[in-house]
Amino acid sequence: MKKGILVVSFGTSHLDTLEKTIAVIEKEIADRFPDAGVYRAFTSGMIIRKLKRTEQIHIDTVTEALQRMSEDGIDEVIVQPTHIINGIENDRMMEDLMEYMSLFRRIRVGKPLLSSVDDYKKSIHAVMAETELSEGEMLVLMGHGTDHHANSAYPTLEYTFHALGYNQVLVGTVESFPELKNVMAKLKIAEKKKVALMPFMLVAGDHAKNDMAGEEDSWKSELEEEGYEVRVIMKGLGEFSGIRKIFLEHIEEAM
């Protein structure tokens, strides 16, 4: 059977972070599974349209990529999302896959990053292995957040950081709970005045550059207004070797 691996990401219009994250993940997948063709799809229509308009780059939707794979004669497909949680984007991806099942002899799907207790532990150790904090510095992670029930992943993530002994880490989200105000309440209790800000997102794109680290109306500016000394770590999760390894493991599990 002719094999193909479809790597599905939400996407980003920031080419600098795309090359450091999504492109590196795809290359490592191609290196690990040389007998399979690797294909790319984004789930964000807005990002796909923006890349076409501003960069003249075409990125397939999930359905376009599946059609392309079918035309290329692939009959065994593994779909690996680079999504962080089992949320809205993953649900939409699964709906698209259901429509195109009949095109292939077999479709198997890998899990998003945070899908098991082990995934949480491995992700935390992967981040902390490559993140240096100075004395008395708190690490504040900005997740995306969602109104989907999978948003419970973010409070669980912070709890697991603390359970593993990383009490200097706090987790907030830009679009749901916990919010920045919840993070700031805990910073006040901790009585720490130094903060390292980092995205807990696959890419360090729009949310990281603007909502997290922008000069106005950002987490950085709000923390600085409250007297915190803020350092920004502009690094997407896709830049951490341990995180990329988890996605590779999820493909192997799907196989």
Describe the protein's architecture and organization.
The protein is α/β, with parallel strands linked by helices and 255 residues long. Helix content is 44%, strand content 18%. It is built from 11 helices and 8 strands. The chain has helices spanning 15-20, 22-32, 45-55, 62-71, 88-99, 117-129, 153-163, 180-190, 206-212, 219-225, 241-254, and strands spanning 3-9, 36-42, 76-81, 106-109, 137-143, 169-173, 194-199, 229-232. Helix 5 links the parallel strand 3 and strand 4 (106-109). Helix 6 runs antiparallel to helix 11. It starts with a strand and ends with a helix.
Order of helices and strands: EHHEHHEHEHEHEHEHHEH
Biggest sheet architecture? 4 strands, parallel
Return the average pLDDT rounded to an integer: 97
Report the strand count: 8
- What proportion strand? 15-25%
Widest β-sheet, arrangement of strands: 2-1-3-4
Shape: elongated
Secondary structure: helix percent: 40-55%
Poorly predicted residue ranges: none
Q: Distance between termini?
A: 13 Å
Total helical elements: 11
The SS-based structural class is alpha/beta
Please give the structural blueprint.
Elements: E1 3-9, H1 15-20, H2 22-32, E2 36-42, H3 45-55, H4 62-71, E3 76-81, H5 88-99, E4 106-109, H6 117-129, E5 137-143, H7 153-163, E6 169-173, H8 180-190, E7 194-199, H9 206-212, H10 219-225, E8 229-232, H11 241-254
Helix pairs in contact: 6-11
